[in-house]
Predict the 3D structure of the following.
Amino acid sequence: MNKTKNSKLSYIDTGKGNKTLLFIHGFCGSHEYWSDIIAELKDEYRVVAVDLRGHGSSEEIGKSFSIEDMAADIASFLEELKIGQVYMFGHSLGGYVTLAFAERFPGKLSGFSLIHSTAFPDDEAGKEGRLKSVEKIEMDGIPAFIDGLVPKLFAHSDDPNIEHTKEIGYKTSESGAIGSLHAMRNRTDRNHVLKDTKLPVLLVAGEQDKVIPAEKTFSVKGSHINEVILEGSGHMGMVEAPNRLIEEIIRYVEKN
């Protein structure tokens, strides 16, 4: 595990190839979400996976921040490592960061993908849910919050990946989680980014995703957009259906 000096983000950088793939995890996750994906892709591509601020092994960078700030973190990270254009894959919260990055730094991208994510902002019920989550963390702490959150991410309550996903979540700092909840609550509608981008886009949804249903992921149509449904998957396709996701990632990158 490496850590940058200036951007203060932890990351792994492995593999080799002419194309660089950057993976950004979701809320209360880390680069470990992508372990199965990375293992299969590193022989053909340079693969980088980063921990967002306050997540995994990355440092906390303030208690109040925005999705735009998190996107700027990624831009600084890429500059510090002298990485050129990347294909960016963002899961859930990572997808919100990816969209903000695509809006502000399109020249740094060869393409981008939203995995179990959406360009829509939170509705009023969603915003209220973010505040309740903040209260839960402040009252009961991260472990109790993670224990309640993680099972909801999976299509099946007996999925063997649940316990490991909890262990990953426990590493999230309280300020990182709370700051991210406010950032997600305050994010703007970015459907225009999907609509107007000149870049190739891959949208991936889980057939049984109870967090972000497919219709919220597939919000914009266009010849530059490829839609994929992961059958039988909930919100965690990278561990629920890794082989299918790997196939789709390879197809997308090789086509573009």
